[in-house]
Amino acid sequence: MELTPDSSVVFTIAGLAINKTIFNTWLIMALLTGASLIITRKLRPDVPPNRWRTTLEVIVQGIDGQIAEITRRHDRRLLYFTGTLFLFIVTSNLLMVVPGFDPPTASLSTTVALALSVLVAVPLFGIGSRGLAGYLRTYLEPSVIMLPFNIISEFSRGISLAIRLYGNIMSGAVIAAILLGIAPFFFPVVMDMLGLLTGIIQAYIFAILATVYISSATAPVKPDADEAAKDPS
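and the corresponding structure tokens:
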């Protein structure tokens, strides 16, 4: 039994081994891109929406609504970023019910890459919102003594994101394989349903945590008490 799809090589290009993690990631990217292009190719006000366009609009509006509840505003940049993360992870996790498909999120390399993208996005969003000096000043809050602890906290967020997603998806796949070996005629349906539920929850948690981290970096700076007293307006 393989614990990660990294060890399965699908083919090689110029001596470079393409394993299941990379190949399945390309498949998901092609699936999401192709579906988006097909559904939105007639995106005009005079064309009535079909059921696929309606489904896509419901998904996008749902993600935008969740972001607005957390950040108290509608942020298109955050919608594009965390929405893409959510759709990639949830599609990867849901496709695990397809026989022979190993979700890329069961690989630590994928979850680390996703976590690194969040780690890079947090300062970029923060600098874009507060400016470089304003963002760096957040590491000194509430006092300069907290500088090393704030830096450690920043990196621990990324590590926890990667380990949480990888551990849940990998452990679910391992448990399913064990139970399928014990009772192959009873557990498949149960484990498929449990896998779908777990995959959706983990994608939701990852996207929500990414939104919270970015929201905290872009939140408006509260005025000091002294400055507020000087300027009551």
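(Above: one complete record from the training split.) DSSP finds eight helices and two strands in the chain.
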